[in-house]
Amino acid sequence: MKKQILVTGGAGFIGSHLCDKLLNEGHYVLCVDNFFTGGRENVSHLLGNENFELIRHDVTFPLYVEVDEIYNLACPASPVHYQYNPAQTTKTCVVGAINMLGLAKRLHVPILQASTSEVYGDPTIHPQPENYRGNVNQIGPRACYDEGKRCAETLFFDYHRQHGLNIKVIRIFNTYGPRMHPNDGRVISNFIVQALKNKDITVYGTGSQTRSFCYVDDLIKGMTMMMNSKEGFTGPVNLGNPCEFTILELAEIIIKMTDSKSKIVFKPLPEDDPKQRKPQINLAEEKLGWVPQIKLEDGLKKTINYFNDVLTND
Ligand code: NAD
Ligand code: UDP
Ligand code: UDP
Fold this sequence. Notes:
Blueprint: E1 4-8, H1 13-24, E2 28-33, E3 52-56, E4 69-72, H2 79-82, H3 86-107, E5 111-116, H4 143-163, E6 167-172, E7 175-176, H5 187-196, E8 201-204, E9 210-212, E10 214-215, H6 216-227, E11 237-239, E12 244-246, H7 247-258, E13 264-267, H8 282-288, H9 296-312
Parallel strand pairs: 1-2, 1-4, 2-3, 4-5, 5-6, 6-11, 7-10, 8-13
Antiparallel strand pairs: 9-12
Bound molecules: nicotinamide-adenine-dinucleotide and uridine-5'-diphosphate (UDP) (2 copies).
């Protein structure tokens, strides 16, 4: 059945891939974005598509449209971007969630929230299951994002309990792939761009901190599977790839894959940088039948090709 689907943050990295998938499935997509970190270039290939509509709008303001489903992704995701205007980040998370929940309530439609592994903060339990309540420093520089996303989850569950809304909450772990912003400061984009330019690879701290990286196509499958899961399964559900690497290992893999002359240099570790992160994904497997398929080196190959093209055309 053809649906009209709203994707907020649809001109961003993950959002633009979601728009692609929903259009491929035959739906009509309304993409709403204020172009803070995303841009028209991420969806320029869709602009001529009669099933695609792009609206410049900030979700901290009310939005009156008619749709059958809502994916709420609007929010800067990289530490550099979300700390640029931290109060605005919290507003986007919280007021944005209220507006999109109000819209879902008026229309009686399902709504999916792109939450994050950051709700676990610097975790003291490893790997992280969904029932772990986290270790967030609520007054630190990452709190605008972490606490904003935590409050958005609270709002989703209150609208579910109070108004019977069909909510779907996913906690996304580090995701990478084509259309990441080359200057967003995230580790994969930084390392690939540095390696391709034969510049120093900047490892923060000793590089012993770990992350688990999920290729964007795997994530998007999980997102749509969650939206289409039976009503009553609200999550939160972790979506991420449990293969864990240290940041130093990642640097070495990228140097090798790009055949780069770059040297590794060590820079100060940012405040409150989580020491380890790895999703427990039994719930996604059991409830959605979702398991990520794409290995780090395969995903990196596609991402390196993408950045190669971006840098060549620069
Ligand atoms: P992104 O920065 O590429 O995309 C976010 C999009 O939201 C951008 O296009 C931006 O312009 C838009 N936006 C920001 N504030 C807005 C506002 N007030 N109104 C309307 N649009 C606004 O980041 P991404 O990596 O694609 O992340 C998408 C979502 O997934 C975010 O909610 C993020 O928190 C979540 N997430 C991402 C990751 C990851 O590893 N990429 C991990 C966990 C959670
Ligand atoms: N809202 C919106 N679009 C709608 C309906 C509501 O943007 O179609 C916003 C509106 O700004 C409102 C918020 O969602 O403040 C929360 O709506 P809700 O009905 O839950 O609460 P209330 O209207 O009582 O504040
Ligand atoms: N990082 C790094 N060098 C960089 C960028 C990031 O060593 O040039 C580290 C960062 O300190 C963190 C990890 O890589 O420990 C992942 O950082 P990212 O910003 O990608 O995501 P997040 O910290 O939100 O998981």
